[in-house]
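Our preliminary data section would be incomplete without showing what the modeling component actually yields. Below, a chain of 301 amino acids is followed by its predicted structure, encoded as tokens that our downstream tools consume directly.
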Amino acid sequence: MGKWTDKAKGIYLDDRHTVTNKELLKVDFIIAWAGHGAQIAQKFTQHVQTAYDIGVPLLAYFASDPTLYFDMGLDESKWPAPDNDPQIKALDRMLKSGSVLRVFHGIMIDASMRIGSDGKTITDGWIVSIARHLQDMCWQRYRKPIYPYISPSTVQAYPGSQQFAVWLSGMDGISIWKSAYSNNPAVETASWDAFPIPADSESPDPMYAPAWYFWRYSNTKFIFPGIDGGAVPTFLYSSDRNRLYSDLGFTSAQPIPQPEPEQPPQTEPPPEQQPQPTRFITMEEKIHLLWLAHPELHPRS
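Predicted structure:
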């Protein structure tokens, strides 16, 4: 057994993907694109339903947009409260139906954006500050596990960054992207029954963080039966399915098979309870019984 065999395995679905046959899916969890900044996803609720129907937990994947806060400066006292925050407004549209939370079990916040729409590079301090702000708001509002996610290329773009070092080292763990197939990127059709996992020689690099939670190990490598829209990214969790479900507070909606109740051993009933053979009464016996039942007809002496 390889070192990744017992890890919880999942897939990532976004607006490109349409699940055409849910019965084929064999995964432990689903991560679904919920939006970016003030932009919302188009198929998030469909993917929520897919996860619910196959009985696995769903994590909402949301990408932070630090440029939405440029006019407010790094003074956190000027940042909007959750009810007025542009990113929380977008998340609310995905994660709530009216005032009721949809069925999701955690939030993955991607803090990888480092180039603004104007082509300018965002500072490391700004990226980290907005990521922390979004993490705090999401926890206060939804009370679900929060998993920060970042691409190594973002951290590597700021060599020696103390901002990233302090932020990442201060967390219990980080979710990370690192291809396990950089030497063999050709697209393949994967099997649900033999879910593709990395070679034992591959592993994620949490950089400054002490550990990793989720590892996105393929992005454009695998196509899966039952899902249209191109390649489906794959994830591993750092522990097994039971630990993941415990961390997420997830209880499967699928009924757990129960063993048939044990039947007591069959015993012979006592003689008085055993069925007796049917006996027919003769005509003479009928007349005799009738005679005994009517003594008034007997002759008097």
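Confidence is low (pLDDT under 50) at residues 255-259. The CA atoms of residues 186 and 221 lie 6 Å apart. Preliminary results of this kind motivate Aim 1 of the renewal.
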